[in-house]
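Many introductory courses stop at the sequence. We go one step further.
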Amino acid sequence: MRLSRYFLPILKENPKEAEIVSHRLMLRTGMVRQQSQGIYSWLPLGKRVLDKVNAIIREEQNRSGAIELLMPTLQSAELWQESGRYEAYGKEMLRIKDRQERPMLYGPTNEEMVTDIFRSYVKSYKSLPLNLYHIQLKFRDEIRPRFGTMRSREFLMKDAYSFDLTKEDAIHSYNKMFVAYLRTFARLGLRAIPMRADTGPIGGNHSHEFIILADTGESEVFCHKDFIDFDIPAADTDFDDVAALQGVFDKWTSLYAATSEMHDAAAFDAIADGNKLSARGIEVGHIFYFGTKYSEPMGAKVQGPDGKEHLVHMGSYGIGPTRLVPAIIEASHDENGIIWPASVAPFDVVVINMKSGDAACDGACDRLYEALNNAGKDVLYDDTDDRAGTKFATADLIGVPLQVIVGPRSVASGEVEVKDRKTGARETMTIEAALNRLIG
């Protein structure tokens, strides 16, 4: 992509309405634009990052055995009345009527709809286990949306829903998602710590929030510092191995970890002083086993091996991609801008032409641009006639991991400069060497 033809509305000044770093940087880099309170358009740069986040989420959901579908944003109120949640949900639900005066709602979540889909088609235990997920827009009319897309009214959500014959089977499905989430966040460049969450009237210990540590986190969290060094499950993890997945779950829940709402001061104080970690945290995912909470009122049953009908046991598993993007920025930035992990960077490399219009610089940049594109790399080519300082500032601000700087002096020697955005390290090398490094 040539920058001269790209839509990248950079802001020179920090927006006054931005309270936290991620909101400020997302507005300054032209990733998003606020359309109304808590509702944002995702502009081209932001959309590229969001798409890469979604791709990793999909890969890990598919790896775990979950199956993707797509449910509508608008839902019939009848399903929610059937489950008993329509009146209980509160003012966060946006209720509307169509032209036939039928009550509808803009879905804040999809338990009812996916249960209706399940009960319409699945009749036997032989079709279980089943985990259905989608990535779809949701709407919750937050009383105080804030921090940009970190807490907005309209947001993108990956929500998965598991269906099993027994509680024991459902716990295995829960562990699949537990492992999938650990892998997902690690691939996004984040160290997420699972912390036990409130299970409400369901009880038990199968509700966890996945928290990343960040100075601007919404709440205080408390945990054992060894979580920082725990190994992430490998890509070849066997998701059908019940004992192995239970072992991962047991390890990652063996040490103290709690949000402020679930904090047990006595248990935390029992940890040796050198192993205590107290910090701010951002929730990036939540998984929850809720048994027959929806299958019972909605009649979601299957025939078991005994020939009798059984209510299915369910769980739900959420990740907010539009929340993850600012969370990544909160965890990875400096005074010059964003530092994207390579896995989700909007571009893999930016080629900076220091003297557009110069035949030698243009020729070298065109060669780099073509070769990198042909190798499947996402390349941004700064071919604008801006000053050098502006080009460098833009490249640092948008956080592309690698910069290739092409100037008249270096090109005369057949060389370019490669800069690592994260470390700031610069290295001068031939164009061929630069291509070998960048293409790998």
